[in-house]
Structure formats: structure tokens, C-alpha cells
Write a structure and sequence with these properties.
Length: about 350
């Protein structure tokens, strides 16, 4: 007859074995391997000519529209890709030359071989791309992370920027991201490199949209597939770890290009109240608010959100208001004396 201690040990083993098996089964179910590059290219690469080779990196770039027309450069947000702009591009390319790219660590560009995901690196790459494509000046359109890169570029190279369209731009401090301090990224973020089932990604994407119907199976599949490009998930973690926010006001005050701020009033990622901070610092700025729209207006309400952008692009006077109330949207204009 077993002793009391042996009975306890046997009881523990009886429960431990099923627990281990359950954890192994959960790990097998949740483990998410990378997608093969050739599989992703079959679905998301339009042409091999869309790869632009720079000295130390190859970028996935779509160059559409009229080659002799004014140039628009579209910069996507965190976790996204150039495909986020497809609705807008179909309209914009009728009048403009439209350049959309996958930033390093996203889409088919894949991870940056240098491992550098800082803003200064992004600014250098954008400048190198403009030089490679022989573009002297362009209007930059950026969403979220892409918005921050756009206005940082405009501050560093004002001679290369005609206008700016900033869609829910990043750049001001937020919970977990302070000025001049590297953020503390939760260790659980590291698990994303190994565990990213589609249902979890859907839960993560949903807050970016005011209308849950926008989060379609097709949209989630696209985001999921391109995050599974080999090295992209690790690159996202590295980019977050390398965020180093500078005080925005001195940089924003260097921008002389007219700026349209486009913001969904239901943005749960970057609050629309941040628009006031941008308006206070920028010389020529307009804010256009979109009711019942979230963080990604160009995906969620492409026609409604594009109207004020087209009006802004076609405006000859940077001081004139744009985005007159359309579909119950609202617009505010502010001009700061350039001597300030």
C-alpha cells in the first residue's frame, strides 16, 4: 500500500500529465509560422518591377498614375502595407503620380537589413527613394506612423515637400511612449513572433475601426499574411523598441508646407484631441473631422475621406479653408504668422 506522500505524488502526476498535454496542444494550435515569400508574392506582388533597389535595402513600391503629374507619396501606419491605400489610389492616379511603398519591416519590403527602424533612418530612406525615382518635390500623405515620418521628413527637407496630408498622425507622447525615452515594450509582445493566430489579430485590429463591418475576413487575411512575411513580426517589435520621440513643437514649427489634418472622430488609437496640438504648432494647417470614423479613414470611409483631400490638393491658396462640411464632416482652418 503506497504511503501518504506517494499517494500525493501519484495524484499530482495524474493531473500534471493532462495539463502538459493540454499546454502542448494549445502551443501547437496557437503557433503561427511565417508564410513563404513566394506564396506572399503570388498574392500581393503586382509585378517584379515594383521592387526598387536602393544601396542597402530593396523596397516594395507601386508607382501609378500620370508620370508628368504632381507627385503624391503615401506612407502607411504600423502593421500595415501599401495595400491600405488601394481605394484612394484608384481615384488619385487619374490626376497625379501616386507612389505607395511598404516601409521596412512591413509588407513585401520585409525587415531592414540594418536593423535600424528609427525615424532618422526612415527619413534617409524616403529621401533616397525620391532621388532614385528622380522626384524633386512631392506631397506626402501619411497615416499614424506614416504621418509621423511624413512630418518629420517635411521638417528636415522642406525644399522637397509641396503639401502634407496627415491622417491621425503619431508624434505626440502617449501612454507608454514618452519624449526622449525608449519605451518599455511588454515581454508578451515578443510572443507575437511565434504566436499570432488570425482571431487574435482581428481582436487587435477592431479598435482601429468605428464600424465593425469594415473588419472583413479579406482585410484581416491581408494584414495577417503580410505580418507573417519572414522577419516582419520581429521587425515590428524592434521598431517599437526603437521609438524615440522628440518634442514635436520645434520640429513642426520648421514646416512651411500647408498641412491638412484628417481625423476620424471615433479614433480609439490616437485621439482627435491631438489635432489641437498640431494646429498650435503648424504655420498653415487645416483639420477636417470625420464623424463615425476611426483611425483608418482611407480604409473605413474611402470616398468620404478622400473628398477633403482632393479639395486640399487642388487648392492654390494654402491659407484658404478646405474640407467644407461634407457628409456632416467638419473643418477648421488656422494660419499662424510665419514670423512667429
Amino acid at each position: 500500500m503506497p504511503s501518504p506522500k506517494e499517494q500525493v505524488d501519484m495524484e499530482m502526476i495524474k493531473w500534471l500529465i493532462p495539463l502538459i498535454l493540454l499546454l502542448m496542444l494549445a502551443g501547437w494550435y496557437l503557433w503561427t509560422p511565417d508564410r513563404p515569400i513566394d506564396h506572399l508574392e503570388r498574392h500581393y506582388l503586382r509585378s517584379a518591377d515594383d521592387y526598387v533597389h536602393l544601396p542597402d535595402i530593396t523596397l516594395h513600391v507601386r508607382d501609378d498614375g500620370l508620370k508628368d503629374a504632381p507627385v503624391l507619396v503615401l506612407l502607411h501606419g504600423l502593421g500595415s502595407s501599401l495595400h491600405t491605400w488601394e481605394h484612394w489610389t484608384e481615384s488619385l492616379k487619374q490626376q497625379y503620380r501616386v507612389i505607395a511603398l511598404d516601409l521596412p519591416g512591413f509588407g513585401l519590403t520585409g525587415p531592414d537589413p540594418t536593423g535600424d527602424y528609427g525615424d532618422e533612418r526612415s527619413i534617409r530612406l524616403l529621401l533616397a527613394l525620391l532621388e532614385r525615382l528622380e522626384i524633386k518635390r512631392a506631397t506626402l500623405i501619411g497615416n499614424s506612423l506614416g504621418g509621423r515620418i511624413a512630418w518629420r521628413f517635411a521638417a528636415a527637407h522642406p525644399e522637397r515637400v509641396d503639401k502634407l496630408v496627415l491622417i491621425s498622425p503619431d508624434g505626440f507622447a502617449s501612454p507608454g511612449f514618452d519624449y526622449q525615452r525608449k519605451p518599455d515594450i511588454p515581454a508578451v509582445m515578443q510572443l507575437m513572433q511565434f504566436v499570432l493566430p488570425k482571431f487574435l489579430l482581428r481582436m487587435n485590429l477592431s479598435p482601429a475601426y468605428a464600424d465593425a463591418r469594415t473588419v472583413s475576413d479579406e482585410l484581416v487575411t491581408r494584414y495577417h499574411d503580410l505580418l507573417l512575411y519572414p522577419g516582419n513580426r520581429a521587425a515590428v517589435v524592434q521598431r517599437l523598441q526603437q521609438v524615440y520621440l522628440l518634442q514635436p513643437q520645434p520640429l513642426l514649427q520648421q514646416i512651411r508646407a500647408p498641412v491638412l489634418l484628417l481625423w476620424g472622430e471615433q479614433d480609439a488609437v490616437i485621439p482627435i484631441s491631438n489635432a489641437d496640438d498640431y494646429m498650435a504648432a503648424l504655420a498653415y494647417s487645416h483639420v477636417h473631422r470625420l464623424p463615425s470614423v476611426g483611425h483608418l479613414p482611407h480604409e473605413e470611409a474611402p470616398q468620404q475621406s478622400l473628398l477633403p483631400v482632393l479639395e486640399f490638393l487642388q487648392s492654390k491658396d494654402p491659407r484658404s479653408p478646405v474640407g467644407r462640411p461634407l457628409d456632416q464632416s467638419s473643418s477648421t482652418v488656422k494660419v499662424r504668422d510665419s514670423s512667429e
